[in-house]
Amino acid sequence: MKKEWWHNQIAYQIYPKSFYDSNGDGIGDLGGIIEKLDYLKELGVGILWLSPIYVSPLADQGYDIADYRRIDPRFGTMEDMRRLLEEAHKRDIHILMDLVVNHCSDEHEWFQKAIADPEGKYGKYFYIRDIKDGKLPCNWRSYFGGPAWDKLPGHEDKVYLHVFHKKQPDLNWENPEVREEIYDMINWWLDQGLDGFRLDAIINIKKALPFRDYPADRDDGLCSTSSMLREAEGVGDFLREMRDRTFKPHHAFTVGEVFNEKPEEIPDFIGEDGYFCSMYDFSATIFGQAPGGWHTYRDITPDDYRNCVFETQRKVADVGFISNIIENHDEPRGVSRYIPEGELTDAGKKMLGTAYFFLKGIPWIYQGQEIGMENIPVSSIEEVDDISSIDAYRVAREAGLTDKEALKLIEKYGRDNARTPFQWNGGKEAGFTEGSPWLRVNPNYKTLNLEAERKDPDSVFHYYKKLAALRKDPEYEDTFVYGRLTPCLEDRHNVMAYCRETEKQRILVMANFQKEPQKLPLPGGVKKILCNNLKEEPQWGKDILLEGYQALVMELME
Q1: Would residue 454 count as lying in a domain?
Q2: The domain containing residue 45 runs over which residues?
Q3: Are residues 354 and 486 in the same domain?
Q4: What is the CATH number of the domain that holds 197?
């Protein structure tokens, strides 16, 4: 495998609206990110992805873009963006922006021109169709609920496609003029000094055409868009062209948000000549999902989590570099998801961090994960901002769940969990803003915050710094970055264990996903304990005793 600069990096995702507010308006901004660059450097971060900061009406929190070449004034100015790039690069931090090109905002100039003249040039930038006999072109359900078709404003006989929110019309990638516009925009950003992109919902750019119905999977008579994606073929033609016209000439780093990929396509996505440098592993985050709604989801167990992760590692193997996560802006907090309710402790948070951090691929930290931020309690649907949560609540109530039961689903799966403001300290609004925050702060901020954890050498924050330092330790870095991953003890309940190996070194990672101790066999003699999330030093011979929620990283004898 050709070695690249990004192979040994630790990446971090910022949700700008909730990271740090530098001007007191209740919204995080670019100035706030610049102020915290030294913090990110201290943590060991080398790649920084910003969720959207473009001009947007925020129907879907910035993933509805009204102008791809302007920074939304809520977040700052283009001069602020240039300063961020300059200051980040001084610290050897690479900046990625979110590339959202499956759709734009209905307030984008292109869509407004399409409304004015549906038969003209810009009408062909979107999927606009006539209503025939009062019937929609197909029965696809949007990701946020309801039909994926809506009336084109001012045209009673026409509809447009939006597989996400109705204010997010899908761009017609079959039209080469659309692709040219997008490539020009991408190159413009890369010419500004941007280091690359995270590609949002990118598989959706290819539709199975012509439009047709699929079997309904709910009582609403609609079907999940994933039914169409399973049949769509040819997305690689678009992705290859985009790579060759934009990313490749700039040597840009790219990571794809890829769902619904077919296993045989993985080399095409992240192989030696892949469309992207990396893609996220969502196997655990989508586990247990069902088309009926959140109330039909199945909870993931520690064994399920381990099996999902190892399945991905086997599929990817030596093909390319996967990006490993336990949470992001679209998911609940990882510690609240993967550790059973009622058992959440600092030990468990550190254990989960250890289990994923040394997998083959790039470890991603989502803002607040490094201090162990948790899901937020919900007492009323009026407290909820997330549009997908609001739709899931409606679906659950219509299915007969009580208000309390439906709100419990929001607490468990809702996207607001990840979007609450970063908890910097125990003061007013967790130190996030001098004003009123756009989204409420998690009430546990007085005890769970960075300032308190900085003072405690045994905190989750200091432990994450140790994980980052160990991964970058010159003595072990080559093994963690390029070594083989071999799963161990896959038949043991509530255990995740694997070896990272090169010809010269073997490192064993073991995690006990339960509160009861477990005695486990060792695949070799222990040379040195490299990392331990508990103060208790383990004793070993042929076996080793792991305390409840203990995780160890051990160098084995050669």
Answers
A1: yes
A2: 5-102+176-202+236-382+420-463
A3: no
A4: 3.20.20.80
**Which one of the listed residues 257, 346, 370, 555 is annotated catalytic?**
257
Q: Are residues 265 and 333 in the same domain?
A: yes
pLDDT over 80 (residue 8): yes
The string of pLDDT tens digits covering residues 67-82 is 999 999 999 999 999 9
Are residue 313 and residue 450 in the same domain, yes or no?
Answer: yes
Helix residue spans in 439-525 (DSSP H): 450-455, 460-471, 477-482
Please name the amino acid found at residue 397. R
Closest CA to 261 of 235, 242, 243, 237: 235
Evaluate whether residue 64 is within a structural domain: yes
356-385 burial: b if 16+ Cβ within 10 Å, else e? bbbbbbbbbbbbbbbbbbbbbebeeeeebb
d(CA 216, CA 204): 20
Please give the full DSSP string across 65-119, using - where no structure is assigned.
-SEEEEE-TTT--HHHHHHHHHHHHHTT-EEEEEE--SB--TTSHHHHHHHH-TT
Q: Flag whether 10 is in a domain.
A: yes
The DSSP call for residue 138 is -
> Do 441 and 506 fall into the same domain?
no
Q: Assess whether 343 carries a catalytic annotation.
A: no
The identity of residue 310, as a single letter, is: F
d(CA 39, CA 36): 5
The number of domains in the chain is 2
pLDDT at 383: 97
pLDDT at 423 over 90: yes
Pairing between β-strand 543-546 and β-strand 518-521 as defined by DSSP bridges:
antiparallel
The model's pLDDT over 468-503, given as tens digits with 9 standing for 90+, comes to: 999 999 999 999 999 999 999 999 999 999 999 999
For 83-141, write each residue's pLDDT tens digit.
Answer: 999 999 999 999 999 999 999 999 999 999 999 999 999 999 999 999 988 899 999 99
386 part of the active site: no
- The letter for the amino acid at 140 is W
516 within a domain of the structure (yes/no): yes
Q: How many CB atoms lie within 10 A of CB 216?
A: 15
- Of the residues 21, 60, 64, 200, only one is catalytic, namely 200
Indicate if 365 and 243 belong to the same structural domain. yes
Which of 3, 19, 41, 60 has the alpha carbon at shortest distance from 366? 19
Task: State the CATH number of the domain containing residue 517.
Answer: 2.60.40.1180
This prediction has a pTM of 0.98
